Amino acid sequence: MDCLFCKIINREIPADIVHEDDDILAFNDIDPKAPRHMLVIPKRHIATLNDIEEGDLALVGRLQYTAARLAREQGFADDGYRVVMNCNEDGGQTVYHIHMHLMGGRRFTWPAG
Length: 113
Known about the structure:
Blueprint: H1 4-9, E1 17-20, E2 24-28, E3 36-42, H2 57-74, E4 81-84, E5 100-104
């Protein structure tokens, strides 16, 4: 498989890892859009949100839990943060392995910014 995130999980490509457990890996984004910008990914390859199945619900919930926990540990949970998951090309997905962007350390605006 030629998946960038699978290569990071398998330690074929280096990453600044901030969390790892049996099912999830989180690392700092190499092109951050905020002072704190991490990617939270499952270790099991799931290409897009459209590919999530009922058996994946606990894993996807753990992604959310891990993002909230990292925000607390990194000290920006109380101020607020943004969590984003993109799906497919029009949704802005560039790596086809589901992942959650956890961003904090600045004020966010809607719809852009």
